[in-house]
Amino acid sequence: MTDLHTARLRLHAIDAAEGKRIAARRAEAEDAWADDFPFDGDVIGVTAFLRTSATHGEQRPFGHYRITRAADGKAIGGIGFKGQPRDGCVEVGYGLAPSARGHGYAAEALGALLDVAADHGLSRVVADTTGDNVASRRTLERAGFRHIDTNGELYLYEAVLIPQALR
């Protein structure tokens, strides 16, 4: 799987070995991490990816991606699909190290995942966040998601994708 590139980011599809390093918070010589990477959200997301991969095998392209800032080559967060698509739909989750927040990186990375989903014939991508996480809600909206429902504390969002033939 080729890395995904945006104007300011590189999204690298991680494998189990890298996932284990992130989950254990133990960088090796080849890892260039921001000082506050991985944060708790990264560990949770990567642990779920590792569990799914161990149970169901290779997840790519619908796996987990390390977000790397192109300007300095530092890992600043993670983004990924929460499992394989079903009925033309897939769920995503994301998070950034605190030092990388507020720069639009998450919305930019979400755009790249929306392209992957559309390129694989999906019609929808969904995500959720808590109602009090205003920054995440705004990020989803900037990336093209719209609020579709509220389920207790969770705000549910969806992005309707344009088929590749019509783009």
TrEMBL record:
Tree of life domain: Bacteria
GO molecular function: protein N-terminal-serine acetyltransferase activity; protein-N-terminal-alanine acetyltransferase activity
GO CC annotation: cytoplasm
Keywords: Transferase
Keyword Chaperone on entry: no
Keyword Nucleotide-binding assigned: no
Alphabetized InterPro entries for the sequence: Acyl_CoA_acyltransferase (IPR016181), GNAT_dom (IPR000182), Ribosomal_N-acetyltransferase (IPR051908)
Residue span, N-acetyltransferase domain: 22-163
Record SUPFAM superfamilies: Acyl-CoA N-acyltransferases (Nat)
Transmembrane stretches, start-end: none
CDD domains: NAT_SF
Protein's UniProt name: Protein N-acetyltransferase, RimJ/RimL family
Native source organism of the sequence: Asanoa hainanensis
